[in-house]
Every structure is written in structure tokens, then in C-alpha cells.
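ligand=nicotinamide-adenine-dinucleotide
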Amino acid sequence: MKSYLVTGAAGFIGSNFVKYMLQKHDDVKLVILDALTYAGNLGTIASDIDNERCFFVKGDICDCGLVDDLFAEYKFDYVVNFAAESHVDRSIENPQLFLQTNILGTQNLLDVARRAWVNGKDKLGYPTWRKGVRYHQVSTDEVYGALGAEGYFTEATPICPHSPYSASKASADMVVQAYRDTYKMPVTITRCSNNYGPYHFPEKLIPLIIKNILAGKQLPVYGDGSNVRDWLYVEDHCKAIDMVVNSGREGEVYNVGGHNEKTNLEIVKLTISTIRKMMEDNPAYRKALKKQVVGADGQIDISWINDDLITFVKDRLGHDQRYAIDPTKIKNELGWYSETRFEDGIVKTIEWYLNHQDWVEQVTSGDYQKYYDEMYSNR
Ligand code: NAD
Ligand code: TYD
């Protein structure tokens, strides 16, 4: 039985990773450490926590004493660090929190793991490590900065972040690599492109657009909508992390992406047309609409679900133009490939949101409306 500390797993990708791991492996024990910020929701993982194979601890990755205690109790073999402040727009409003959680939190986890896992010294004075342990940092393609119309990020692309979020993630990556170089710590890093799928908090583009369409609200597209992101279905990211933690080479970085580059305007239009088509094909889905207009035929009208909902708003400051990943290394070394085509993944995602309106209500019942008004009223 391998014991994992999985941080930030009450959020989007971490929760999907927990579900993926519990389904895929019988021989894993997962301890979730999550501070339950606005982005973390216990309801997301409630059905996974059984106190046998999956445990939950509420707490901060910066809390040294707590993380120490968890290492003593659960004797972790692996740390997989998802915990982070993850939204670029929020990082523009409040950079300091991003530096605190994303950099110092990572450094704290590395340090506690080092204390727990080092079992001696070699002839040159380098620490020696308990066999089979590994620290894995979940990073992002945003650390590479932005691309023009051509080219891809490879693992050799220089780090050149632009937003406070990406700068904090890049710094964390460098701290991880410093622990590798200085202490020979067994570490790996994955840098993934934009994820989409179930349990995505509706402040990020795709879930926000779905939520707004269902409510009959305007769909805010920053600038002219020409910025490009490389979208990956979240389960494909989880598969990549599992592979890298178990078979990736120590000290290595692996880029993860599925060659699904689309402009934001394309994404918004595709989401509109997919929702409309799903509701045409299956009128039962129309019950999920918050805006209910009954047509002359007595059916719930959906003719208003069209591109007129799109509204171009003020651009994000320092908005990166294009991200695109070259996943050759993880493909060649570990045999990873993305299994879900965007056309299928977006239908699965929308279907999930249509069937989980209660989850959306729950996670947006707190300060969400205040956030939305502050973020979008001046745009
Ligand atoms: P998220 O915002 O949905 O979830 C983050 C989780 O971390 C939340 O559950 C939150 O409560 C928790 N958290 C925040 N601060 C904490 C702290 N101090 N201590 C403990 N827990 C804390 O984020 P996500 O989209 O799931 O991203 C997870 C990771 O993947 C992040 O490190 C992010 O940088 C990286 N990543 C995200 C994407 C993407 O498209 N979303 C792409 C590539 C990489
Ligand atoms: P986002 O989901 O915030 O991810 P990231 O900034 O990490 O790539 O945004 C994806 C793209 O969508 C990005 O180019 C900004 C844009 N965007 C909008 O146009 N409107 C919105 O309301 C949001 C949240 C994002």
C-alpha cells in the first residue's frame, strides 16, 4: 500500500485526481490536505472519504507543525502538491496571497518531506533518501510566458512568467529544482495546459460560460477573444500525473497537453452551440435553465441561446496571447497521450454541469456574487 499526501484535492484537478486514483488503484492510501479556501469544497470529495483508503484533513500547506504530524502519522511515500491559489484574475487583484501559498507553501512541504525522508548522508555529504519516495509538483504551462502565432512550449523553453500567478508558480518550480540540485531530493514536475471538466469552479472561462448561459446572462470575452489556450480534459491530466509520479525520471520536468488549441472566442461559441444542440436533442435538459421562457408551442424556448449573448469586455492586464504545449517527452518516455477529444470532452463537461446544478449552487453560494460584481462590473 503506497501512502500519498495529496494537497489541494478539494479543488478542481486535485479532486479529479483522487477519484481517478481510487478507481484505478487498489493499493493506494490518499490523505487530502486542503485549507478549503473559496476554491475548495468538501462536497466535491465527500463520497471519496472513507477513512480507510481516503482521509481528509483541513489545513494549510504552510503549517509546518501540521504537515510534520501528518508525515509522522501516515508515513507518506509520495507528496502530490496541487494546493495553490490558481486564478490569474485574482492574482492581479491580490498578488501577495499567491506568493504566500504557492511559493512558501511549496517550500514548507519540501522541507517537511526532507526531514521525514532523509535517512543518512553519502561520502560527499549529500543526503540519502528513503527508497521509493517522491515529491511531485503540479505546475502549469503559464510559467513559460506567452507564445506568438507559431511554436510550442517544450521543457527547454526558458521560464518567463508574466502574471503574479504564473510568477509564483515559476518560483515554486525553481524551489523544487533547488531542492533537487542541493539535496538530491527525488522530485518531479508536470507543467500542464488549461484543464476543463467536472468540478471546475465557475470563475474560470468554461464553467463560467456554462453557468452564465444557463442563467441567460452575458458571456464576457476579454479583449477581442483572440487569445489561445490549449485545452485538456482533466482526467487526461490526472493520468499524466499518475504516470510521472510512478515512472517519471527523478529531477525531470514533463509538459502535458493534448494539442487542442482554440481561441477564447471559439471556445465560447462552441459552448453556446453545444448547449443549444444538447437541449434541442434532449428537451429534458432545458429544466436546468434559470432563464425560463415558454414559447408559443408550450415548450421552454431556447432560441435566445445564441452568439448574441457574447459581450466583449475590457482585456485582462498583461493578458498572455497564446499557450501551446509540446507533449513529445511524456509521450515518448512514458507512453502518455490524451484520450479525450475536445469535441467529446466539452459534451461530457456540459452534461456534468447540467446534471450537477446543486454543486454549482453550493460552491457559488458564498462570496461568489460579490466577486463576480467586483470583477466584471467595471469591465
Ligand atoms: P483550484 O483553485 O480549483 O483548487 C486549489 C485547491 O487548493 C482548493 O481546494 C483550495 O482550497 C486549496 N488551497 C489553496 N490554498 C491552500 C493552502 N494554503 N493550503 C491548503 N490548501 C490550499 O485549482 P486547480 O485548478 O485544481 O489547480 C490545481 C493545481 O494545478 C494548481 O497548482 C494549479 O497551479 C495547477 N494547474 C492548474 C491548471 C488549470 O487549468 N486549472 C492547469 C495547469 C496546472
Ligand atoms: P482562465 O480560465 O481564467 O484560465 P487562464 O487565465 O489560466 O488561462 O481564462 C482562460 C482564457 O479565457 C484567458 O485567455 C482569459 C479568458 N477569459 C475571458 O475571456 N473571460 C472570462 O470571463 C474569463 C474568466 C477568462
